[in-house]
Write a structure and sequence with these properties.
The complex is a heterodimer of chains A (149) and B (441).
Chain A: H1 3-6, H2 9-17, E1 33-40, E2 47-55, E3 58-67, H3 70-83, H4 88-102, H5 112-115, H6 131-148
Antiparallel strand pairs in A: 1-2, 2-3
Chain B: H1 7-13, H2 19-26, E1 35-36, E2 39-40, E3 42-43, H3 54-66, H4 77-96, E4 104-107, H5 110-129, H6 137-140, E5 147-151, H7 160-169, E6 172-176, H8 186-192, E7 197-203, H9 215-224, E8 228-232, H10 244-247, E9 251-255, E10 266-270, H11 272-277, E11 288-291, E12 296-298, H12 312-328, H13 330-349, E13 354-356, E14 368-373, H14 378-386, E15 390-391, E16 393-395, H15 400-405, E17 411-415, H16 422-433, H17 435-438
Parallel strand pairs in B: 3-15, 5-6, 5-7, 7-8, 8-9
Antiparallel strand pairs in B: 1-2, 4-10, 9-10, 11-12, 13-14, 14-17, 16-17
Helix pairs in contact in B: 3-12, 4-12, 5-7, 13-16
The chains are: A alpha+beta (149), B alpha/beta (441).
């Protein structure tokens, strides 16, 4: 498997664009329930703090701050784009699907219909050492979602 | 046959290593002869763990095929053979570091060796408080107000055991600071190591910075304060001649797997008079004289610190590794690796957006280089290099406080050994030169 299959264009783009980053400067929307989670990978020092706002059963805002490798930063960015506007149940669904693909060691293909840009992380599943990089913000999101809903 | 030669003549006549010799050496290491991601493997992670030559692999295999048995017990033939091999290995490794046989204790690795010292010292406080053991134990017992001194560049293995010893005894942990070039400041050290200092623990050579610390000067400061000196020799014993008596340290530790031997075997050197009185760390079989329902009496060192069935085949393999290093010549290996280190650092410094940790090119350092790539996380650097078959270490290298001190969380480290050529270093440098463009930094 080539490096370009791991670092797909979408991933490199998102690692620079970092949609949703800037938690410290972004106020939570009025009237929404929020949850916030900090996750750290002690092996490499990757760190993400992610906040979710939920109103009327839908995720209305994802905001995060983090430091880490391109995979971890891109996956936080992709998650932010994907989750905003989804119902709580839908977000749980995509998190479960994403986790299943990443833990499959490459055996389970990603469903682009369901995961959108996050399907680009399919290749990460073949690199056991990088699965946590891709998962860190999604683990934070799951924790935050449980607090907010 | 008697061979007579003076060391001075030897020193002059020893040829320096070159790429041709290294390529011959490489043939002794089967694992290095493989393709990774379509490229010939370039292994630059020996600072984490080294590879095994055939002679080491065969020594372990020969032990299991010919003489495997429990040592120091049983009167049968194999038990005698195994015990001989095990104790001969101890003598070989003792000779390698200038120690006496009974001052050379087998451990699992350097981490266990450092924990052994730390627990033996807090056990000394417990024994002394109850009047148990030698009266000199009182002098080794730490108490509130006493200080343990380490440096800001320590590996977690030579840091956390001292944090915990401080916790158990009420002593205070203090740090010798480093400057921005990754060197200790001896004037500041002289202000910190003082009458309260009971233990000074420091690394001989930094696994991140590459700095070689001034052992002599630090030992002099410790001696003036009557403090014990613990030397972490993990990055020195595999790479340069080491004489623990000449360095005049009280304890030294290193791991076999970083010096061509298998995992699971390490060495603790301790000054005889200390090992003879210190309470054991682990207790159980093989380290006792008399055991009653109430208590036990312990053997002198080294058995005093070797409870339970030992890592016999690994000890035999470590002796084979010591022989391999001695036959190649640790002074020659040291010189070769220093040159490789200089080549790495000079090459990295010439690249835009690269910050090398530790001493600059032209200054003394061992054969490794840790660096930060502006705009690219170390994990991505490591992945990029791996795609070209180049193995390096990424992360904090078990030195979080040091990375925090330098304002970083993770770096990439290339570390060389006797089987690396200048071509390996050049391939690594060429690859690093392409990292920032790939990740658009």
């Amino acid at each position: 498997m080539s490096l370009d299959q791991l670092y797909q264009q979408i991933i490199l783009d998102h690692s620079k664009a970092r949609h949703g980053s800037g938690l410290a400067e972004t106020p939570a929307p009025q009237g929404a329930a929020t949850g916030q989670s900090h996750q750290l990978n002690p092996v490499c020092g990757d760190e993400v703090t992610l906040r979710l706002a939920v109103a009327d059963g839908k995720v209305t805002q994802v905001s995060w701050d983090g430091a880490g490798c391109s995979i971890s930063m891109a996956s936080a960015s992709v998650f932010s784009d994907l989750a905003e506007g989804m119902t709580v149940a839908e977000v749980h669904g995509v998190i479960d699907s994403f986790r299943e693909v990443l833990r499959s060691r490459g055996k389970i293909p990603a469903d682009p219909e369901l995961l959108g840009d996050a399907a680009a992380f399919e290749g990460v599943a073949r690199y056991a050492a990088r699965v946590k990089c891709a998962m860190i913000s999604w683990v934070a999101a799951e924790d935050a979602l449980n607090q907010a809903s | 046959m008697a061979v007579v030669s003076t060391p001075a003549t030897l020193e002059r006549s020893v040829p320096v290593m070159d790429n041709a010799e290294v390529l011959r050496i490489r043939n002794d290491f089967p694992v290095l002869n493989q393709m990774v991601n379509g490229k010939q493997l370039v292994y630059l992670d020996s600072g984490a763990t080294s590879q095994n030559p055939l002679s080491v692999i065969e020594a372990e295999q020969e032990f299991y095929e010919q003489r495997n048995a429990a040592v120091h017990r049983g009167a049968h033939h194999l038990a005698v053979e195994a015990t001989e091999a095990f104790e001969d290995a101890r003598q070989t490794v003792a000779d390698l570091i200038g120690a006496d046989y009974s001052e050379t204790v087998w451990t699992s690795n350097a981490t266990e060796g450092l924990n052994l010292i730390s627990y033996a010292l807090s056990n000394a406080a417990l024994w002394a408080a109850q009047g148990r053991g030698d009266s000199a134990l009182k002098g080794l017992a730490l108490k509130p107000g006493d200080e343990i001194v380490v440096t800001e560049m320590e590996h977690h293995a030579n840091l956390i055991p001292w944090q915990e010893l401080a916790f158990r005894t009420g002593a205070t942990l203090r740090y010798l600071p480093i400057d921005d070039a990754g060197r200790l400041n001896l004037e500041q050290a002289a202000g910190i190591i003082g009458s309260r200092t009971r233990v000074l623990a420091f690394t001989h050579a930094s696994n991140v910075l590459g700095t070689i610390n001034p052992v002599r000067e630090l030992v002099a400061l410790a001696r003036a304060s009557n403090a014990l000196v613990v030397l972490d020799a993990c990055q020195s014993a595999p790479h340069m001649p080491l004489d623990v008596k000449e360095l005049d340290v009280d304890f030294a530790v290193f791991s076999g797997h970083k010096m061509l031997a298998p995992t699971g075997i390490g060495v603790l050197y301790g000054r005889q008079e200390l090992l003879d009185i210190l309470p054991p760390f682990l207790t159980g079989g093989s380290m006792i004289t008399t055991v009653t329902m109430e208590r036990a009496e312990y053997l002198p060192a080294p058995q005093r610190f070797e409870a339970g069935t030992q890592r016999i085949s690994q000890a035999v393999a470590l002796a084979a590794a010591a022989n391999y290093l001695t036959e190649t010549g640790l002074d020659r290996i040291h010189r070769w690796e220093m040159d490789l280190g200089q080549r790495m650092v000079a090459g990295l410094e010439a690249l835009p957006g690269i910050r090398v940790l530790g001493p600059a090119a032209g200054e003394e350092r061992i054969g490794l280089a840790a660096f930060d790539v502006d705009g690219v996380h170390a994990h991505d650097v490591g992945q990029f290099l791996d795609s070209m078959g180049i193995a390096v270490r990424v992360g904090h290298h078990c030195a979080q406080p040091l990375h925090r001190r330098l304002g970083l969380t993770a770096t990439t480290r290339a570390s060389a050994y006797l089987y690396n050529t200048t071509d390996d270093v050049d391939q690594f440098l060429d690859a690093v030169a392409g990292v920032r463009a790939y990740f658009r930094a």
